[in-house]
Specification:
Chains A, B: This is Homoserine dehydrogenase. Chains A, B: It is an enzyme of class 1 (oxidoreductase). Chains A, B: Its EC number is 1.1.1.3. The structure is a homodimer of 346-residue chains. The first copy, chain A, has 346 residues and is α/β, with parallel strands linked by helices. The first copy, chain A, has 2 domains: 176 residues, NAD(P)-binding Rossmann-like Domain (Rossmann fold, 3-Layer(aba) Sandwich), CATH 3.40.50.720; 158 residues, Dihydrodipicolinate Reductase, domain 2. In chain A, helix 4 runs parallel beside helix 5. The interface between A and B is large, with 42 and 41 residues.
Chain lengths: 346, 346
């Protein structure tokens, strides 16, 4: 029986959700997945850090109060975030990196990933920053150190997108994709179709916890742009930077536009997409598009996310599912560990 | 470089499509997938058979006329279908079984699969019969002989369903599924929504080649029932027989039912589904259902197929794509070989 020693880097909703999964399901994973998990360290810039090579109690971690320096309340814990110690010296086989996404330089997450990979430790992450901004470097670093760098949760939380394309669609010759990759903006567009104004819909999304106080990353397409870079580089072997993706959002769409679309049986959607042209170069964009009712993404409503892959052999294959949520995103980390186990665990 | 020697059993649309894929893509598979394919034998009850351990010309196979005994026209070919010789003695590593589905006893395909598995030869198939009627026996036979029995194409052609659930959703705790698993009946319902009567829509589906002269397997749910058995046994660890699945079709749905649904923003769909209850037993059915407009399957129109998985950790994840087509189904055979290569090829 394989047991993976895991260190959690960042202890917000996602890694707390992962600790919850460990608390609830570790015993059944032995039977269902062929491995179990031991949490040997946690570090968080706000909460502090803790290491125990014998394994931390996942239930106790889940119950930790969200207070500055809270890890000092646990035996052996510390109010300070000893990130490097937890990543390099906790004895972890795998680092689960789930700190905040920094869209400018991907830090400090990228440094955390580098530390782990350079030390021969697998990395699983739900963080768009390191993958979108430094993906090629980190993938090469992982290859050189014969470890995995997995990031299913960076796009559409635990809904399989990257792995679906890489494994199940291998050989289908993916030519491009179109996606609804931001739940907040799709919720806003759906509620506008239901009669709200743009501002009313944004306010409602904020009340429901979908949108931040500053909703611009969601409604102006910046969040989607990072995901388009990740998917284009992964699925189309592109080498795009964020600045290669033209980007506009949904804030110019009026109630009248929406009403006209509905009358025509069409839907406005914020679409992130990329396609490879016959010369092999990849063009990518984020923009609001008017989709006919027969388009596979036209019916995707509310906070649901979806990606439609276009391939030479299958035409359009579309997957939809949750795009956010702490347990849904924590599942992405588990699915990354399952993938690592498939390759390295036998 | 791994080369898989493949024998094709049945040479109708699907395996002819597979030969087309080999003719067009074998060279690129070496780079993209890490293996190439050599067709060492073909047998077909109508066309006859041929074996060449040095490899048959895939292009020549594709061009074979559809005439009784046509393989006799090729050097070394025979008008008779020497099935057992081709399966057991062509030197194949993998049998691609794509004969017709026999919904009564799964023969002769099941015997073909047994011959291969007993001889230590992997089987990939797009045939629902052996999997739905004798799946447990054939899976056990494969395990005992340390070979693979793969059948992605038995449900939704090359659209990943079985492998998506088995690999990418592993650990999500799938509790049930609902699917639109028959393109003909979905096309009929879609065209009734567009104003045709049931009989007009069936006639149109026949003219387009979706429906057989006797459309009852499609519109009465019998085809879907086989797929529900396959998915329930695969995804929910059920041990269902065909007779365990209650089954009704769409022939009683009237134009008036459809009009009323449309007025209510709802859609009639032929749904194959199964779910595990809290005691662990699995209930499965095929029936026409009235889906609200927000249901993930409500917007699936035309001949497209889709499955919505319900899991404990992700809620609903839905995949849609082609449910038929010769190249689309042949791709399923390729994806099965990719899966075999992942496990056995390293």
């Amino acid at each position: 029986m394989t047991e993976y020693k895991i260190a959690l880097v960042g202890f917000g909703g996602v890694n707390r959700g992962f600790a919850q999964l460990v608390a609830d399901h570790n015993a059944e994973w032995k039977v269902a997945l062929g491995f179990s998990v031991r949490i040997v360290g946690v570090t968080d810039l706000f909460l502090g850090s803790i290491v125990d090579k014998d394994g931390l109690d996942a239930k106790q971690l889940v119950a930790l109060p969200t207070e500055k320096g809270a890890f000092a309340q646990l035996p052996g814990g510390n109010a300070e975030a000893f990130n490097e110690t937890v990543i390099k010296h906790s004895g972890a086989d795998i680092i689960a990196e789930a700190t905040f996404t920094n869209p400018v330089d991907g830090e400090p997450a990228t440094t955390f990933c580098r530390w782990a990979l350079e030390s021969g430790i697998h990395v699983v992450t739900t963080n768009k920053g390191p993958v979108a901004l430094h993906g090629a470097e980190l993938k090469a670093l992982a290859r050189r150190n014969n470890v995995a760098f997995e990031y299913e949760g960076a796009v559409m939380s635990g809904t399989p997108v990257i792995r679906l394309a890489r494994q199940a669609l291998a050989g289908s010759n993916i030519l491009g994709f179109e996606g609804i990759l931001n739940g907040t903006s799709n919720y806003v567009l759906t509620q506008m179709k239901n009669g709200l104004t743009f501002n009313e819909a944004v306010t409602q999304a904020q009340q429901l916890g979908y949108a931040e106080a500053d909703p611009s990353a969601d409604v102006e397409g910046f969040d989607v742009r990072l995901k388009v870079v990740i998917l284009a580089n992964e699925l189309l072997d592109a080498r795009l930077n964020v600045s290669d993706v033209t980007c506009s959002g949904i804030s110019n769409i009026t109630a009248q536009d929406i009403a006209q679309a509905t009358a025509d049986g069409a839907s406005w959607k914020l679409i992130g997409c990329a396609e490879r042209d016959v010369q092999g170069s990849v063009r990518a964009s984020v923009e609001a598009r008017l989709l006919p009712g027969t388009h596979p993404l036209a019916g995707i409503g509310g906070a649901i996310n979806a990606v439609s892959f276009h391939s030479e052999l299958l035409g359009a294959v579309t997957v939809s599912g949750p795009g956010a949520g702490r347990i849904e995103t924590a599942f992405a980390l588990l699915s990354d560990i399952v993938a690592i186990h498939t390759v390295y665990g036998k």
